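Pilot study result, target chain (276 residues):
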Amino acid sequence: MSLSVIMVSYRTGPVLFDAIEAALAAPEVDELVVVNHDNPPADEARLTALAAAEDAMTLVNTRANLGFSKGCNIGAQAASGDHVLFLNPDAVMSPGAAARLLATHAGLAEPAIVGARIVEADGSEQAGARRGELTVRRAVAGFLGRPGYRRDHEPMPETAVAMETVSGAALLMSRAGFKQLGGFDEGYFLHVEDIDICKRARVAGGRVMFEPRALVRHLGATSRASRLKIERHKAEGLVRYFARHGGALGPVKAALTAPLIYGAIYARAFGRLLGR
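Predicted structure:
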Protein backbone atom coordinates (compact mmCIF):
# COMPACT_ATOMS: atom_id res chain seq x y z
CA MET A 1 0.00 0.00 0.00
CA SER A 2 1.56 3.28 -1.08
CA LEU A 3 0.47 6.55 0.52
CA SER A 4 0.43 10.05 -0.93
CA VAL A 5 -0.10 12.99 1.41
CA ILE A 6 -1.75 16.00 -0.23
CA MET A 7 -1.49 19.52 1.19
CA VAL A 8 -3.18 22.57 -0.28
CA SER A 9 -1.55 25.79 0.89
CA TYR A 10 -2.71 29.38 0.52
CA ARG A 11 -0.54 31.85 2.45
CA THR A 12 -0.32 29.40 5.32
CA GLY A 13 2.71 30.88 7.06
CA PRO A 14 5.74 29.26 8.75
CA VAL A 15 3.80 26.30 10.16
CA LEU A 16 3.52 24.95 6.61
CA PHE A 17 7.13 23.83 6.78
CA ASP A 18 6.58 22.10 10.13
CA ALA A 19 3.70 20.16 8.54
CA ILE A 20 5.85 19.26 5.54
CA GLU A 21 8.74 18.11 7.74
CA ALA A 22 6.47 15.85 9.81
CA ALA A 23 4.86 14.33 6.71
CA LEU A 24 8.19 13.61 5.02
CA ALA A 25 9.54 12.08 8.23
CA ALA A 26 6.72 9.52 8.43
CA PRO A 27 8.03 6.20 7.07
CA GLU A 28 4.57 5.26 5.79
CA VAL A 29 4.44 8.32 3.52
CA ASP A 30 5.75 7.52 0.04
CA GLU A 31 4.94 10.86 -1.51
CA LEU A 32 4.02 14.41 -0.49
CA VAL A 33 2.18 16.58 -3.00
CA VAL A 34 2.01 20.26 -2.09
CA VAL A 35 -0.44 22.38 -4.08
CA ASN A 36 0.78 25.98 -3.91
CA HIS A 37 -2.17 28.36 -4.08
CA ASP A 38 -0.40 31.73 -4.31
CA ASN A 39 1.95 31.63 -1.33
CA PRO A 40 4.25 34.65 -0.86
CA PRO A 41 7.38 34.68 -3.07
CA ALA A 42 9.72 33.81 -0.18
CA ASP A 43 7.61 30.78 0.79
CA GLU A 44 7.28 29.70 -2.84
CA ALA A 45 11.06 29.87 -3.26
CA ARG A 46 11.49 27.75 -0.14
CA LEU A 47 8.95 25.22 -1.40
CA THR A 48 10.72 25.03 -4.74
CA ALA A 49 14.05 24.37 -3.02
CA LEU A 50 12.50 21.69 -0.82
CA ALA A 51 10.89 19.93 -3.78
CA ALA A 52 14.24 19.93 -5.60
CA ALA A 53 16.00 18.44 -2.58
CA GLU A 54 13.34 15.87 -1.59
CA ASP A 55 12.66 13.04 -4.04
CA ALA A 56 9.41 12.26 -2.23
CA MET A 57 8.01 15.80 -2.60
CA THR A 58 6.12 17.13 -5.61
CA LEU A 59 5.21 20.80 -5.88
CA VAL A 60 2.23 21.87 -8.00
CA ASN A 61 2.03 25.63 -8.55
CA THR A 62 -1.40 27.04 -9.38
CA ARG A 63 -0.41 30.61 -8.43
CA ALA A 64 -4.05 31.41 -7.71
CA ASN A 65 -6.38 30.62 -4.85
CA LEU A 66 -8.61 28.05 -6.52
CA GLY A 67 -10.20 26.86 -3.30
CA PHE A 68 -9.55 23.89 -1.04
CA SER A 69 -11.71 21.34 -2.88
CA LYS A 70 -10.24 22.08 -6.29
CA GLY A 71 -6.75 22.13 -4.80
CA CYS A 72 -7.28 18.69 -3.26
CA ASN A 73 -8.50 17.32 -6.58
CA ILE A 74 -5.48 18.81 -8.37
CA GLY A 75 -3.20 17.23 -5.78
CA ALA A 76 -4.91 13.85 -6.10
CA GLN A 77 -4.45 13.93 -9.89
CA ALA A 78 -0.73 14.58 -9.40
CA ALA A 79 -0.36 11.85 -6.75
CA SER A 80 0.57 8.25 -7.44
CA GLY A 81 -0.24 6.47 -4.16
CA ASP A 82 -2.81 3.73 -3.67
CA HIS A 83 -4.10 5.85 -0.78
CA VAL A 84 -4.42 9.60 -0.41
CA LEU A 85 -4.25 11.48 2.88
CA PHE A 86 -5.57 15.02 2.67
CA LEU A 87 -3.73 16.98 5.33
CA ASN A 88 -4.12 20.65 6.16
CA PRO A 89 -0.96 22.69 5.66
CA ASP A 90 -1.10 23.76 9.31
CA ALA A 91 -1.60 20.20 10.60
CA VAL A 92 1.40 18.35 12.03
CA MET A 93 1.16 14.55 12.15
CA SER A 94 2.38 12.71 15.22
CA PRO A 95 4.64 9.68 14.68
CA GLY A 96 2.60 6.64 13.68
CA ALA A 97 -0.54 8.61 12.74
CA ALA A 98 -0.38 7.74 9.05
CA ALA A 99 0.23 4.05 9.81
CA ARG A 100 -2.77 3.94 12.13
CA LEU A 101 -5.05 5.57 9.54
CA LEU A 102 -3.95 3.04 6.92
CA ALA A 103 -4.45 0.10 9.27
CA THR A 104 -7.97 1.24 10.18
CA HIS A 105 -8.88 1.78 6.55
CA ALA A 106 -7.87 -1.75 5.55
CA GLY A 107 -10.88 -3.98 4.90
CA LEU A 108 -13.53 -1.27 5.19
CA ALA A 109 -16.41 -1.17 2.73
CA GLU A 110 -15.58 1.30 -0.02
CA PRO A 111 -15.73 4.18 -0.56
CA ALA A 112 -14.24 4.36 2.94
CA ILE A 113 -12.97 7.39 4.83
CA VAL A 114 -10.87 7.48 8.00
CA GLY A 115 -10.34 10.69 9.93
CA ALA A 116 -7.74 11.47 12.57
CA ARG A 117 -8.02 12.82 16.08
CA ILE A 118 -7.34 16.55 15.71
CA VAL A 119 -5.96 18.42 18.70
CA GLU A 120 -5.06 22.02 19.50
CA ALA A 121 -1.50 23.12 20.21
CA ASP A 122 -2.12 22.41 23.92
CA GLY A 123 -3.32 18.85 23.23
CA SER A 124 -7.03 19.47 23.79
CA GLU A 125 -9.45 18.07 21.25
CA GLN A 126 -10.33 20.44 18.46
CA ALA A 127 -13.98 20.98 17.66
CA GLY A 128 -15.17 19.38 14.45
CA ALA A 129 -12.92 16.35 14.18
CA ARG A 130 -15.92 14.09 14.86
CA ARG A 131 -19.42 15.17 13.97
CA GLY A 132 -22.88 13.73 13.62
CA GLU A 133 -25.39 14.19 10.82
CA LEU A 134 -25.63 17.82 9.70
CA THR A 135 -29.08 19.42 9.78
CA VAL A 136 -30.14 23.07 9.75
CA ARG A 137 -31.27 22.82 13.37
CA ARG A 138 -27.97 21.32 14.49
CA ALA A 139 -25.98 23.87 12.49
CA VAL A 140 -27.79 26.78 14.13
CA ALA A 141 -27.31 25.19 17.55
CA GLY A 142 -23.59 25.12 16.84
CA PHE A 143 -23.60 28.81 15.94
CA LEU A 144 -25.24 29.50 19.31
CA GLY A 145 -22.47 27.72 21.17
CA ARG A 146 -24.34 24.46 21.78
CA PRO A 147 -23.01 21.03 20.78
CA GLY A 148 -25.11 20.93 17.61
CA TYR A 149 -23.75 18.20 15.34
CA ARG A 150 -20.30 18.24 16.94
CA ARG A 151 -19.43 15.25 19.10
CA ASP A 152 -16.27 16.46 20.83
CA HIS A 153 -18.26 16.81 24.05
CA GLU A 154 -18.65 13.02 24.15
CA PRO A 155 -16.09 10.70 25.81
CA MET A 156 -13.12 9.92 23.60
CA PRO A 157 -13.34 6.34 22.27
CA GLU A 158 -10.33 4.09 22.74
CA THR A 159 -10.43 2.57 19.25
CA ALA A 160 -11.80 3.49 15.84
CA VAL A 161 -15.55 4.06 15.72
CA ALA A 162 -18.08 4.75 12.98
CA MET A 163 -18.83 8.43 12.57
CA GLU A 164 -21.11 10.40 10.28
CA THR A 165 -18.47 13.03 9.55
CA VAL A 166 -14.73 13.43 10.13
CA SER A 167 -12.53 16.44 9.53
CA GLY A 168 -10.92 17.24 6.21
CA ALA A 169 -7.90 18.48 8.16
CA ALA A 170 -6.63 14.86 8.14
CA LEU A 171 -8.77 12.57 5.98
CA LEU A 172 -7.61 9.33 4.37
CA MET A 173 -9.17 7.46 1.45
CA SER A 174 -8.08 4.90 -1.08
CA ARG A 175 -7.48 6.27 -4.55
CA ALA A 176 -10.19 3.94 -5.86
CA GLY A 177 -12.72 5.18 -3.31
CA PHE A 178 -11.85 8.80 -4.03
CA LYS A 179 -12.32 8.24 -7.76
CA GLN A 180 -15.58 6.39 -7.15
CA LEU A 181 -16.98 9.52 -5.49
CA GLY A 182 -15.59 11.84 -8.15
CA GLY A 183 -13.32 13.54 -5.63
CA PHE A 184 -14.27 16.61 -3.65
CA ASP A 185 -17.16 18.72 -4.91
CA GLU A 186 -15.46 21.84 -6.28
CA GLY A 187 -18.62 23.83 -5.68
CA TYR A 188 -17.39 24.14 -2.09
CA PHE A 189 -14.61 26.72 -2.06
CA LEU A 190 -13.67 26.38 1.60
CA HIS A 191 -15.43 24.48 4.42
CA VAL A 192 -18.24 21.88 4.31
CA GLU A 193 -16.50 19.87 1.54
CA ASP A 194 -15.50 17.29 4.16
CA ILE A 195 -19.08 16.97 5.41
CA ASP A 196 -20.24 16.54 1.82
CA ILE A 197 -17.76 13.82 0.86
CA CYS A 198 -18.44 11.89 4.08
CA LYS A 199 -22.18 12.06 3.35
CA ARG A 200 -21.67 10.84 -0.22
CA ALA A 201 -19.42 8.02 0.95
CA ARG A 202 -22.07 6.77 3.40
CA VAL A 203 -24.87 7.07 0.83
CA ALA A 204 -22.72 5.00 -1.57
CA GLY A 205 -22.46 2.22 1.02
CA GLY A 206 -19.01 3.07 2.36
CA ARG A 207 -17.79 3.41 5.93
CA VAL A 208 -16.65 6.59 7.66
CA MET A 209 -14.48 6.01 10.71
CA PHE A 210 -12.94 8.23 13.38
CA GLU A 211 -9.53 6.99 14.53
CA PRO A 212 -8.64 8.49 17.95
CA ARG A 213 -5.21 6.83 18.00
CA ALA A 214 -4.03 8.83 14.95
CA LEU A 215 -3.04 12.14 16.49
CA VAL A 216 -2.66 15.31 14.42
CA ARG A 217 -1.87 18.73 15.89
CA HIS A 218 -3.80 21.39 14.01
CA LEU A 219 -2.82 24.97 14.70
CA GLY A 220 -5.64 26.31 12.52
CA ALA A 221 -6.44 29.81 11.27
CA THR A 222 -2.85 30.40 10.20
CA SER A 223 -3.81 31.60 6.72
CA ARG A 224 -3.74 35.35 6.19
CA ALA A 225 -7.16 35.29 4.57
CA SER A 226 -9.93 37.59 5.79
CA ARG A 227 -12.02 36.17 8.64
CA LEU A 228 -15.24 37.54 7.14
CA LYS A 229 -14.38 36.05 3.75
CA ILE A 230 -13.78 32.66 5.38
CA GLU A 231 -17.13 32.86 7.16
CA ARG A 232 -18.84 33.76 3.87
CA HIS A 233 -17.38 30.65 2.26
CA LYS A 234 -18.66 28.61 5.19
CA ALA A 235 -22.18 30.02 4.79
CA GLU A 236 -22.12 29.36 1.05
CA GLY A 237 -20.97 25.81 1.71
CA LEU A 238 -23.76 25.12 4.18
CA VAL A 239 -26.42 26.44 1.82
CA ARG A 240 -24.99 24.28 -0.98
CA TYR A 241 -24.95 21.24 1.28
CA PHE A 242 -28.61 21.59 2.28
CA ALA A 243 -29.58 22.14 -1.36
CA ARG A 244 -27.71 19.02 -2.49
CA HIS A 245 -28.65 16.72 0.35
CA GLY A 246 -32.11 17.93 1.27
CA GLY A 247 -34.02 15.63 -1.06
CA ALA A 248 -36.39 16.81 -3.77
CA LEU A 249 -37.15 20.01 -1.86
CA GLY A 250 -33.49 20.60 -1.01
CA PRO A 251 -33.07 23.75 -3.14
CA VAL A 252 -36.25 25.24 -1.71
CA LYS A 253 -35.23 24.44 1.86
CA ALA A 254 -31.78 25.90 1.25
CA ALA A 255 -33.23 29.12 -0.15
CA LEU A 256 -35.57 29.49 2.81
CA THR A 257 -32.89 28.83 5.40
CA ALA A 258 -30.09 30.82 3.69
CA PRO A 259 -30.90 34.10 5.51
CA LEU A 260 -30.80 32.27 8.85
CA ILE A 261 -27.47 30.62 8.03
CA TYR A 262 -25.83 33.82 6.78
CA GLY A 263 -27.19 35.82 9.72
CA ALA A 264 -25.94 33.32 12.31
CA ILE A 265 -22.50 32.97 10.74
CA TYR A 266 -21.92 36.70 10.31
CA ALA A 267 -23.15 37.37 13.84
CA ARG A 268 -20.61 34.88 15.15
CA ALA A 269 -17.85 36.35 12.97
CA PHE A 270 -18.51 39.90 14.13
CA GLY A 271 -18.69 38.68 17.72
CA ARG A 272 -15.23 37.17 17.39
CA LEU A 273 -13.86 40.33 15.79
CA LEU A 274 -15.27 42.54 18.52
CA GLY A 275 -14.02 40.17 21.19
CA ARG A 276 -10.38 40.52 20.11
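One observation from the pilot: The two ends are 46 Å apart (CA to CA). A full batch analysis is planned for the follow-on phase.
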